[in-house]
Design a protein that fits this description.
The chain is an alpha+beta fold and 546 residues long. Helices cover 30% and strands 23% of the residues.
Length: 546
C-alpha cells in the first residue's frame, strides 16, 4: 500500500478511522489484516503514559489479540505478568488490616480449556504502542499523527472528510465508510447527528499516578492487582502499574480542587503511613452511564467511547470498544470485498447495542458499593469489636463485589439474541453451545487451540468424518464467499460434537456460532445468504485507493 505523511494524504480510502486510540487502532488491524485500505487520523503524536485509565485486558480481548498474532508481543511488554498475582485485596490501608480477598480474578487464572488466553493486566499505553506498531506493519503510512477530523459529510456514494493537521491546514479525503473512534468529544458523532442518552454519577473521583519505589517494602498483603482501601481518611482504589514503584490511585468522592491540594495526604492515607512519593499526573473524573441514540448513519459508524460510556468498575469499557472494532471491522471488510449483503452492516448496531447496554448496567451495579460504602467503625481496632467489624465487612465485600471480579459469564457468555445474520434455531437457542454465542473453546490433543484452526472468514466445523460438507462448499462458491472447512480428528470430534449438540457448526470470523446442525440444510445456499447479510448490492466490491 502507498505511504503518506501528514502533508500528503490519499485522496480516497476504503475506510477512514477518526481517532487512533485502542479502539480505532484495533479497527485498523482488523480491517488491514483483511486487505482493506484504511487511514487512521489521530491528534496525539505520541502515546501518553500520564493517564493509563485502562489496566484490564479481558480474556475476550486477548483472544482477539491472539487471532491478530499480537498476544505474546503484548504480554512480553506488560509490566505485571499474570503469574505475579491474580488477587484483589480489600484492606484498611496497604500497611493495615486485610478485610477480604478475591483470587483468580479478571480471567487471570486458567479454567481448564474454557479459553486459550488468560486476561492481562497492562496499562493502556502498552496496548496502544503494540497496536500502533501493528498498524504500521500492516498498513504502512496509514497512521496519520498530529492531525484530526474536523468535518464529515456524506452522500449515497461516499463520505467526505476534512482533516486538519497541526499547522491548521485542511485536506479533504473521501472514503467508502468512516468509523468514529474519537472518544467522548467525538466530532464524527456530532456531524452525524447522534447524541448520548443516559446520566452521570453525582460523586467526583480523583485519579493519580505516583512514583514511590519504597512503598512495596511496607505493603502487608502481598502482591495484588488491586487494593481497595477502606478508611475514612482516604476511601480509595489503588494498584501497581509495574513492580518498581509506579502506582495508580482513585480517591472516591474527591473533587479536583481537594485532590490537587491534598494529593500527598491521600497517598499517605492509602499507604497507612508517611511515604516518599512523587505525583506524576492527576485525572479528575465523574462516572458516566451513557449510550448514543444511534450508532450508524448511512456510511458513518461510531465505536468505543464515541458510542458508549460506563463506569470503570469491572474493567469493561475499553474491552467493549475492542469488541465494537472487531464486529464492525470484519463486517465492513465483507461488504467491501463484495461477498456480504445489506443486512451485514445493519447488524452492527443490532448486535452491539445489547452488549453495550448490558455492560453499562453491570458496571453501574459494580459502582453501587465502593470503599465509601464499606466504611465502618473499629475496622483497624485490636479489640473484639474490631474483629467483629472486620468479619462483617468481609462478608459484605464477598456478597456485593464478587460479580465485579468474576465476570467471565459477561465477558464470554453473552449471546446475540436477535440479528439478521443468525437464523432462528429454537433447538440451539440456549445451553453451553448455542447460535449467536462464542464458539466453545477446545484444546486439541497436540496442545493447539481450536480457534487457531478457524479460517479468516466463514468456517465450517465438521465433527464427523462421514458428514457431508459439499452443500456448503457449493453454496460458498456460488456466493463467492470465502469458506474454510475444518474437520476435527478422531476422538476430539466426537466429544466436541457432544458439547455442541451438533455435527456441523458454521462459525463467523468473530468466532460466533451462526448455525448448528447434524447435516446440511435442504437449502444451504439460502442459509449462507442469511449469514452473509443477503444478496450483495451490485458494485459492492471494494473500490480502489488513489
Amino acid at each position: 500500500m502507498p505511504s503518506y505523511d501528514n502533508g500528503h494524504l490519499p485522496r480516497h480510502v476504503q475506510v477512514l478511522i477518526a481517532g487512533g486510540g485502542p479502539v480505532g487502532l484495533a479497527a485498523a488491524v482488523e480491517l488491514g489484516r483483511r486487505g482493506i485500505d484504511c487511514l487512521v487520523v489521530e491528534v496525539r503524536t505520541t502515546v501518553s503514559r500520564a493517564r493509563p485509565r485502562c489496566k484490564t485486558l479481558n480474556v475476550r480481548t486477548m483472544e482477539h489479540l491472539r487471532r491478530w498474532g499480537l498476544a505474546e508481543r503484548l504480554r512480553e511488554r506488560a509490566p505485571l505478568p499474570t503469574s505475579w498475582s491474580q488477587d484483589v485485596v480489600f484492606c484498611t490501608s496497604l500497611t493495615g488490616r486485610e478485610l477480604s480477598r478475591f483470587t483468580g480474578v479478571l480471567g487471570l487464572a486458567p479454567e481448564d480449556d474454557r479459553f486459550p488466553e488468560l486476561g492481562q493486566q497492562a496499562p493502556q499505553y502498552v496496548l496502544e504502542e503494540v497496536l500502533r506498531e501493528a498498524v504500521e506493519e500492516i498498513l504502512p503510512g496509514r497512521l496519520v499523527l498530529g492531525s484530526k477530523v474536523v468535518g464529515v459529510s456524506q452522500d449515497d456514494a461516499r463520505v467526505t472528510v476534512t482533516v486538519e493537521n497541526g499547522a491548521g491546514a485542511h485536506t479533504v479525503v473521501t472514503a467508502d465508510h468512516v468509523i468514529g473512534c474519537d472518544g467522548p468529544r467525538s466530532v464524527v458523532r456530532d456531524e452525524m447527528g447522534a447524541r448520548y442518552v443516559g446520566g452521570e454519577a453525582l460523586r467526583p473521583n480523583f485519579g493519580m499516578v505516583f512514583q514511590s519505589p519504597g512503598l512495596w517494602e511496607h505493603v502487608a498483603h502481598g502482591p495484588a492487582v488491586q487494593y481497595w482501601v477502606v478508611n475514612p481518611t482516604a476511601p480509595a482504589l489503588v494498584g501497581p502499574l509495574d513492580r518498581t514503584g509506579t502506582w495508580w490511585v482513585i480517591g472516591f468522592g474527591v473533587d479536583r480542587e481537594t485532590g490537587e491540594r491534598e494529593a500527598r495526604q491521600i497517598i499517605d492515607a492509602v499507604a497507612g503511613r508517611p511515604v516518599q512519593a512523587t505525583v506524576l499526573s492527576s485525572d479528575p473524573w465523574t462516572a458516566r452511564m451513557q449510550i448514543v441514540d444511534r450508532m450508524r448513519r448511512g456510511r458513518v459508524f461510531l465505536a468505543g467511547d464515541a458510542a458508549h460510556l460506563n463506569p470503570p468498575f469491572g474493567g469493561h469499557g475499553l474491552n467493549t470498544g475492542i469488541g465494537d472494532a472487531v464486529d464492525l471491522g470484519w463486517k465492513l471488510a465483507a461488504v467491501l470485498k463484495g461477498w456480504a449483503g445489506p443486512d451485514m452492516l445493519d447488524s452492527y448496531e443490532a448486535e452491539r447495542r445489547p452488549v453495550q447496554e448490558r455492560v453499562i448496567r453491570e458496571a453501574t451495579a459494580n459502582m453501587r458499593v465502593l470503599s465509601t460504602e464499606l466504611l465502618a467503625d473499629n475496622l483497624d481496632a485490636d479489640h473484639p469489636a474490631g474483629a467483629q467489624a472486620r468479619r462483617a465487612a468481609g462478608a459484605r465485600i464477598q456478597e456485593t463485589k464478587k460479580a465485579e471480579f468474576h465476570s467471565l459469564d459477561l465477558v464470554l457468555g453473552l449471546r446475540i439474541a436477535t440479528s439478521p445474520l443468525i437464523p432462528a434455531q429454537p433447538g440451539h437457542a440456549d445451553g453451553p453451545a448455542c447460535t449467536g454465542a462464542r464458539l466453545p473453546h477446545l484444546f486439541l490433543e497436540d496442545g493447539r487451540s481450536l480457534y487457531d484452526l478457524l479460517g479468516a472468514d466463514l468456517t465450517l466445523l465438521a465433527l464427523d468424518q462421514n458428514v457431508s460438507v459439499t452443500p456448503f462448499e457449493e453454496a460458498a462458491i456460488l456466493r463467492n464467499v470465502p469458506l474454510t472447512v475444518v474437520r476435527l480428528p478422531g476422538p476430539a470430534a466426537g466429544g466436541y460434537a457432544g458439547r455442541l449438540g451438533a455435527r456441523l457448526a458454521l462459525v463467523r470470523p468473530d468466532q460466533v456460532v451462526a448455525w448448528l446442525g447434524d447435516k446440511a440444510p435442504d437449502d444451504a445456499l439460502a442459509l449462507v445468504g442469511v449469514v452473509c447479510g443477503g444478496t450483495p448490492r451490485k458494485g459492492a466490491a471494494a473500490s480502489r485507493s488513489l
